[in-house]
Amino acid sequence: MDMKQAMKERHMVRKYTDEPIPEDIVEKLNHRVRENNEQYGLSIKLMTNDDSAVPGVIKLILAKGVNNFFIMAGPDGADELCGYCGADLMLYAQTLGLNTWWVGGTYNRKGAQEKIEGAKPVGIIAVGYGQTQGVPHKTKTAEQVSSYDGESPQWFKNGIGIHHQR
Ligand SMILES: Cc1cc2nc3c(=O)[nH]c(=O)nc-3n(C[C@H](O)[C@H](O)[C@H](O)COP(=O)(O)O)c2cc1C
């Protein structure tokens, strides 16, 4: 599966099986994390076999089996870059057969801060083998989110996903 296919297939998944991520896949994820950190000056970190990403109350009602997660972190003002790199990591994980869940609100902030030195966590992304593949959420049409004077070029159509529209 390539990154474009991953865009179609990725949906939020909050419930995971207990299947651990194999070592070779963890190595691939870590490699991608290093590339993102080096290119954008971030401090993203992958934690595996660690169930401390979200508080107990969330695990009770919303989530299950969150045992691996990326801590999205960087210097002050790097929130947008963390979002960009988070999208890259989520899609890359999807190409490796994994599922993901971005958590910007209800994560264990203190725990994340303790694991990251000298940078500010902006959220975590849970990663693992989903109990399901999730469901597509409501999306807007290309016309609702964009306009182009004249005939739009192919790169524009690709970018806003006109090929997905009815
Ligand atoms: C930056 C960001 C922060 C998010 N924070 C939370 C959160 O705190 N709790 C939660 O349950 N989901 C959170 N989500 C997941 C969204 O609810 C989910 O991505 C959204 O419903 C769209 O679904 P999709 O990812 O399947 O397209 C977050 C997503 C993003 C991109």
Describe the structure.
The chain is an alpha+beta fold and about 170 residues long. It has 2 domains: about 5-135, NADH Oxidase (3-Layer(aba) Sandwich), CATH 3.40.109.10; about 135-165, no CATH class. It contains 7 helices and 4 strands. It has helices at about 5-10, 25-40, 55-60, 80-95, 110-115, 140-145, 155-160, and strands at about 45, 70-75, 100-105, 120-130. It has a 4-stranded antiparallel β-sheet, with helices on both faces. Bound molecules: flavin mononucleotide (FMN).
Count of DSSP helices? 7
Number of domains: 2
Overall radius of gyration: 17 Å
Strand content is: 5-15%
In spatial order, strands of the major sheet run: 1-2-4-3
Would you identify the regions where 5 or more consecutive residues have pLDDT less than 50?
A: none
Distance between the termini: 23 Å
Order of helices and strands: HHEHEHEHEHH
* Shape call: globular
